[in-house]
Specification:
Elements: H1 8-12, E1 16-19, H2 42-56, E2 61-65, H3 74-83, E3 87-92, H4 111-131, E4 135-138, E5 143-144, H5 152-169, E6 175-179, E7 189-190, H6 195-205, E8 209-214, H7 224-234, E9 237-241, H8 259-271, E10 283-284, H9 294-313, H10 317-325, H11 329-340, H12 345-353, H13 361-368, H14 370-377
GO molecular function: isomerase activity
Keywords: Cytoplasm, Isomerase, Manganese, Metal-binding, Rhamnose metabolism
Protein name: L-rhamnose isomerase
Amino acid sequence: MVDLSRITPTLENLAIEVPSWAYGNSGTRFKVFQTPGTPRTVQEKIADAAKVNELTGLAPSVALHIPWDKVENYGALSDFAQGLGITLGTINSNTFQDDIYKFGSLTHSDAAVRNKALDHMYECIDVMNVTGSQDLKIWLADGTNYPGQGDMRSRQDWLHDSLQKVYERLGDDQRMVLEYKFFEPAFYHTDVPDWGTSYAHTLALGEKAMVCLDTGHHAPGTNIEFIVAQLIRLGKLGSFDFNSRFYADDDLIVGAADPFQLFRIMYEVARGGALDPAANVALMLDQCHNLEEKIPGQIRSVLNVQEMTARALLVDRESLTKAQEAGDVLGAHALFMDAFYTDVRPALAQWRESRGLPADPMAAYAASGYQEIINADREGGQQAGWGA
């Protein structure tokens, strides 16, 4: 069995935020599927998230999506989460579902539409003030489908002006993380299509504005780990949205499509010191579980991140540096691949048992009867899902 003692202090700090919407119903563009046991309220979503943390010890916070998770009393909601052993994390804004945002939100040519989007951002900050959340995450569906449809330069000016107003509302301990996505739903141009655009806007705003990197939001063949390394080097990587994709933004279980890519990403995260809590880089999931059961899907996801993080930490960086500096191409590559091919699962199982956690969280969940309980208890009512 591999010895994890050298990397245990770093593994102890690993925390992966789970998204509330992962526990609701989702599907394809053509159908949102109903499943037994799906939460009907945000409290039931939080209870499911707490179960993931109970079995893995890896998911101490849950991200909320406004207005999907809107409640009258966010203080009470925060107390409810803490009573289950977790906290409320990132607050995700939503300016992509209302009819008024058909032609854009923060980049709309009509100031009245931009102001409506700004009011929503301010509402999210108000939620953060109550819950103690650190990050406001902004993802925009803004863009155009046809050449000439919109003035791309003016839209960037409106975006900067809008983001500046949101930035000025942030508290001293709060941040804005700006997500990017290279296409969809806009197919000709997207207003925040890549890390460079997000970086340029956040750099202009100041230290409380950071980039959010979604691993599914890149063109095929993109070297995501290079972007990770660059943003850490520049001090602008605020958070991750972890998921997998085969074609476009599939939002599948992280590490399912290309575990080697996840390993490479986590190596650069570790190499850049971003696993140190002082670096303040938030690791989050952004996934939907269309076919598989949702809670096991989230358990599998956080375990995948933990496993690839452990492998990445096992890279002998001192020997690797020597091989790199000596121009030993194959030797350096072998050191990298040796770590990737190391089976850390038995050692992690032992590590979990030593901390009072189940050695096999997936099996423990299946044996717990929790799914059967919620299937019975959550009959009737309106199940949560996209747009609900």
